[in-house]
Amino acid sequence: MLSRLATWWTILRISLEERLVYRGDFALGTLMRFLPIVTQIFLWGAVFSAIGATAGGSRVAGYSYRDFIAYYLLTMIARAFSSMPGLATGIARDIRDGTVKKYLIQPIDMLGFLLLYRIAHKLVYYLVAAAPFALVFYLCRGFFPGWPGAITLLGFLASLGMSFLLGFFLEATLGMIGFWFLEVSSLLFVYMLFNFFFSGHMFPIDMLPGIWGDLVRLLPLQYLAYFPSAVFLGKITGADLAWGLAVQLAWLVFFMAASRVAFHFGVRRYSGFGG
Amino acid sequence: MPDRPSYLKVFLIFARNSLVRDMTFRANFIIDTISSIAWMAMNLAFYALVFQYTPMLGADSGWGKYEFFLFLATTLVVNSIVQALFMTNADEFSELIRTGSLDFALLKPIDTQFLVSLQRIEWSSAGNLVFGLVLIVYASGKLDQAPGLAQIGLYLVYVACGVTILYSLMIALAASSVWLGRNQTLYDFWFYITNFSRYPREIYRGKYGDPLRWFFTFIIPVLVVINVPARFLVRSLRPQTADDWLLPAFTLAAAVVSLAASRWVFNRALGSYRSASS
User: Fold this and answer.
1) Which residue from B174, B167, B50, B18 is spatially nearest to A63, judged by alpha carbons?
2) Half-sphere exposure (CA, 13 Å, Cβ side) for B200?
3) Which residues neighbour A84 within 8 Å (Cβ) at sequence distance 6 or greater?
């Protein structure tokens, strides 16, 4: 047990150091990533100015103008937890070029290794990105209704933590498909497309009318961006909050199991190519 | 033997070679085309959704649903042309500089900027172009008054201006990798800058919007790239405000100046280029 902990600690430390090598323009890059929010602010400003001029009502799908901006800023936080750049493509590539062998012959669990690597990656990211995030949120504090209550805040944090794990295991499962199909890039593009629109990154999914909204709510994607943000804004409370968190946990457990099963059967199919 | 090569002929050969290459990997080509169209269809669906909640983007801006669809189609047309002709090449150019393979381009008896800018044509972007044209036909049919011939003629001129401005910006950015020595952030930077051009100018207003609009119109003129041609499609030609003829005039000048500026940057970059090959 102790030796296993030592292994994990070593993996975490190596990954941390590797990430810190490239801290140079990292902070600037993070700040740049907020630029699209600027156009969103103006876009929704234009939408609301038109509604105000014609109808007098000032809410879109239950969101005020300020809610919209706050929502987009919050999805940035949620995405900072749930997005896993390069995870699925990395796994698929390792399978294709044979690098996956190293997990098979060394006493290291592949999913565990990748998870620790990802945690280290994220930790460094938060360390470097904290200042730009704080700056942007400070500048935009007027869009927020104020700090939410303790229960909402706890729900938000729980949902964020799970969104990280859900994002990880969901993408890992997708990457494992590489054991069956060598080329998965077009499949991953479809996933990326769905993720972008139906995770709530592009718009709050409350905007979707009727059956479309119901369908998107059945997907696990909403927990990657929409759900934590909506919780923070107090759109989801009480029993809905508890139920939402439970469903998120269920999806998380499902994908944890799915990635294990996929890895188990994938390795059986695997024939090592490349040196 | 003629002194200078026939640029048109060389361009056609580039186009042909690229097509042959794309058709060699046909499945990949089809997937590329479908995925970029799917991406645009999703975007279109998003705006259709937005227009479920509002009749117009901005009070009295004139950008109703179908007017804005024409705007979106123009974004598609301009960007697909830029992507088809220049995107891959600009990316390749940074790579040529980094690896030192630019030597081979310099040795060829043809203008280096021409060669570097156009040697690979991305045919899969044609799918988006077609999608954009179909959207134009559909959306202009929904307008009270379909655009006339003169409007279409001016539209084409200003689409060309838009493409020129974007090209100049892109090649200048790519050339800057001579001094920076890397190009990873090029695409990011490109995306963030052109992101501002994807919306009507009218939405940028207020305390922060006005300076922003001014900056992206007159300093980095990306806001006229889509806005000016799209305006010609949705509104009658009779100028209503001074902006209606000043802005197109400015756009013409901006296209010429930015092309000249990019040429200057490009040549400066070549002057500073030190081959990196062993």
Assistant:
1) B50
2) 26
3) A118, A167, A168, A171
The rounded distance, in Å, linking the Cα atoms of B216 and B222 is 6
**pLDDT at residue number B6:** 86
The answer to whether the CB of A21 falls within 8 A of the CB of B22 is: no
Token output for B187: 């695409």
| Interface probe with A: pick from B31, B40, B52, B54, most Cβ of A within 10 Å | B54
| C-beta separation of B175 from B266 below 8 A | yes
Strand, helix or coil at B147?
coil
Write a three-state SS string for chain A.
Answer: CHHHHHHHHHHHHHHHHHHHCCCCCHHHHHHHCCHHHHHHHHHHHHHHHHHHHHCCCCCECCECHHHHHHHHHHHHHHHHHHCCCCHHHHHHHHHHHCCCHHHHHCCCCHHHHHHHHHHHHHHHHHHHHHHHHHHHHHHCHHHCCCCCCHHHHHHHHHHHHHHHHHHHHHHHHHHHHHHCCCCCHHHHHHHHHHHHHHCCCCCCHHHCCHHHHHHHHHCHHHHHCHHHHHHHCCCCCHHHHHHHHHHHHHHHHHHHHHHHHHHHHHHHHCCCCCC
* Cβ-defined contact of A197 to B46 (cutoff 8 Å): yes
Rounded Cα gap, residues B66 and A149, in angstroms: 43
Mutate to test the interface with B, among A42, A44, A195, A203 (most CBs of B within 10 A): A42
* Structure ipTM over 0.90, yes or no: no
A212 in Cβ contact with B42 (< 8 Å): no
CA distance B42 to A212: 13
CB A239 within 8 A of CB A182: no
Measured CB to CB, residues of chain A less than 8 Å from chain B are 25, 29, 32, 35-36, 38-39, 42-43, 45-54, 60-61, 186, 189-190, 193, 196-197, 202-203, 207-209
- Cα(A110)–Cα(A18) distance, integer angstroms: 18
Name the one residue in this structure whose structure tokens are 């900056």: B215
- Tens of pLDDT along B192-207? 888 888 899 888 888 8
Q: Which of A141, A138, A143 is nearest to A65 (CA)?
A: A143
Type of residue found at A100: V
What are the CA-CA distances from residue A116 to residues A11, A82, B275 (Å)? 7, 15, 41
Residue B61 is nearest to which of A29, A46, A209, comparing CB atoms?
Answer: A46
The DSSP secondary-structure symbol of B239 reads -
pLDDT tens across A161-197, in order?
999 999 999 999 999 998 888 778 888 888 999 998 8
pLDDT in tens, B124-133: 888 899 999 9
φ, ψ dihedrals at A49, nearest 5°: -65, -35
Please list, residue by residue across A12-35, b when 16 or more beta carbons sit within 10 angstroms of its beta carbon and e when fewer do: eeebbeebeeeeeebeebbbbbbb
Structure token pair of residue B212: 């922003």
Rounded CA-CA distance A204/A255 in Å is 24
Cα A69 to Cα A42: distance, rounded to the nearest angstrom = 10
Using CA atoms, how far apart are residues A173 and A91, in angstroms rounded to an integer?
9
